[in-house]
Amino acid sequence: MAQRAQQIASHLNFPSGLLAGQVAIITGSGQGIGAECARLFANEGAKVVVCDVDSAKSEAVAKSINDASPNRAISVPGDVTDPNYFPVLVKKAAEFGNGKIHIIVNNAGYTWDGVIHKMTDKQWDTILAVHNTAPFRLVREAAKYFRVKDGEPRVIINISSTSGTHGNAGQANYSLAKAGVTGLTKTIAKEWGPQFGVRANTIAFGHINTRLTQAKESGAFITTPDGQRISLGIPQSQLASRKGDDDAAAYKDIPLGRPGSATEAASAVMATCSPLFAYVNGQTIEVTGGRNI
């Protein structure tokens, strides 16, 4: 125990960054919160594996990181619902990290909303595949790089939502999936924490400014593997009903009075991965600006 505490303490001396020398896989990092995570991690000394279903966006994020700090990022684009993707992703990440992987951030995801009595099996199965099956498969594939005793930190972050911690009308599939993430996280913490010191935590976001919280009419969409186009966001009429005549009214239940930015959300992820959170394990951390307190 004392030796482990000393190893952790040694990581608190971080002249080259909070994540110096670590290798991180961040899914869904071609845009939004994931892209901000990739940039922040790289700024804190990590080598980052950028992965997104959109190869152009994945490549662009990796290039922007390498332009600032050469050889700090690689792009390994792919579809997280494809079981053949993870062996490739993990192999390339380990090669990039000289045989080591330290951090996984299971961030990839989207919504496909519908009220319970109208939701299709396809909507249900797709969202569970993206938010539950995919993180499990990635963690399982990377197990041999986390179940090690080399004195170096290992962290897994599973991204959830307040839809998972509190439920949300029109999101039975997403709410169940995001609630399930918590169980996966706690199980990782209990299985891999005692012998290997792996930390696993869930971060549940509230209202963060991303394509999932913008007006659906703005045109953001994702295409499923079978070619179906899914519109993302919140209907303009629903947003307008929240605001009424006062924009601030839309955020009256958030004590900070505003939504969070993608950078603020990513900062919470980075902090939880860092040595500053070395004794935080198996927790669900809500990043909401105070909503639901």
TrEMBL record:
Coiled coil regions, renumbered to chain: none
Keyword flag Oxidoreductase: yes
InterPro entries found in the cross-reference section: KR_dom (IPR057326), NAD(P)-bd_dom_sf (IPR036291), SDR_fam (IPR002347)
Pfam families linked: adh_short
Domain of life: Eukaryota
Gene3D superfamilies, per the entry: NAD(P)-binding Rossmann-like Domain
Domain Ketoreductase: start-end pairs: 22-195
Keywords linked to the UniProt accession: Oxidoreductase
Entry's family note: Belongs to the short-chain dehydrogenases/reductases (SDR) family.
Protein name, entry field: Ketoreductase domain-containing protein
Organism name: Exophiala sideris
Lineage: Eukaryota, Fungi, Dikarya, Ascomycota, Pezizomycotina
